[in-house]
Amino acid sequence: MGDVSREKRMERHKSNEVDLFLRRALVVVLVVLLAGTVLLFVYGSYFTSRLDSFEQQLKYRNPTESDESQPSDPLTVESAQSETPNAVQGQTIYVPAYSHVYHQEGNPHLLTVTLSIRNTSIDHEISIDSVRYFDTQGVEVKSYLSKPLRLKKLATAEFLVARSDVTGGSGANFLVTWTANKPVSNPIVETVMIDTSSDQGISFVRSGTVIHELGPQSE
After folding, report:
1. Residue numbers of the domain that contains 27
2. Which of 3-17, 38-52, 161-175 has the highest mean pLDDT?
3. Alpha-carbon distance 119 to 150, whole Å?
């Protein structure tokens, strides 16, 4: 009888040790999971904060709001010999824009429009004298500049028409006028239309057409 009781006590003791081990293992697992969850939350919050900060840095800003880009006076056109093939000292450029396009049975699909003006000169800045936005009927909707905007060499200026701004219509356009004090290579002027609000996004680009040109000025 004594041996049987001793065996039972040993079995109970072993069972208690196993239970204690399992409980400790469960506590360790829970602690690890909790620590991992906390770390994931902290990392997720940090990553989200960094992403929001990065997106904020990339958010569109009107170039006219930068004091550094604003000259007190427009550039004075000076006489100079051209060292760049086909160089000019000023242009008026017509740029197509589409604040919406039609789809299905003629339903309008609204678009965000970005006008991009890129100074391709590696030596000289240019002056953007006017940026005017016209609707489908040819009526001026908006003038983006109250005074000339100086664009440094290889710099880009962008002007935005928000998706919610439907004043331009499907046949809208920009007229961009620029000048330089020395003959320079032609800037690249184009519009980018985009919308990602639906499951199927849409985007396309249209280049500007020169309708008036100011060649190198003779002495």
Report:
1. 1-59
2. 161-175
3. 10
